[in-house]
Design brief:
The structure is a single chain. The protein has a single domain, classed as 434 Repressor (Amino-terminal Domain), CATH 1.10.260.40. Helices cover about 60% and strands about 10% of the residues. The chain is built from 6 helices and 2 strands, in the order ααααααββ. The chain has a two-stranded antiparallel ribbon. A hairpin with a 2-residue loop joins strand 1 and strand 2. The longest helix has 21 residues.
């Protein structure tokens, strides 16, 4: 029988690697992080602002993990799991928040006019 020493530390390192990875989380990774926090799916879904059914579909690979859900899962884990982790990752968190702000800039306005009985749309700066 194989024995894995320091299993808790190993699982914490895996979780840390997941929250720091540059590409999107998978449903299995979301489930792993939720279980590391010891949260029921219903409670975790409420914390990150999605329906429990949606979380179930994500964790089972039937729905892709949206960028918003991905980031909320990572933030929830970081803020809930270990305060030392927050301190070590403060600048990375600020970079993520800055990039969100840039991505959620005001959408451009679309002005539509009718010319020769046809609609024509023009994008205008917000």
């Amino acid at each position: 029988m194989a024995e894995i020493p320091a299993v808790t530390q190993l699982l914490n390192l895996i979780a840390q690697d997941l929250i720091e990875k540059p590409n999107a989380l998978t449903g299995d990774e979301v489930r792993f992080l939720r279980k590391r926090l010891g949260r029921k799916a219903k409670d975790f879904a409420k914390e990150i602002g999605i329906e429990p059914e949606t979380l179930s579909r994500i964790e089972n690979g039937h729905f892709p993990v949206s960028q918003q859900t991905d980031m909320l899962v990572r933030f929830d884990y970081i803020l809930s799991a270990d305060s030392k982790l927050v301190e070590r990752r403060r600048s990375a968190l600020m970079d993520i928040l800055r990039s969100w702000k840039e991505q959620t800039a005001e959408p451009s306005k679309i002005i539509a006019t009718v010319s020769n009985n046809e609609w024509q749309a023009e994008n205008m700066a917000a």
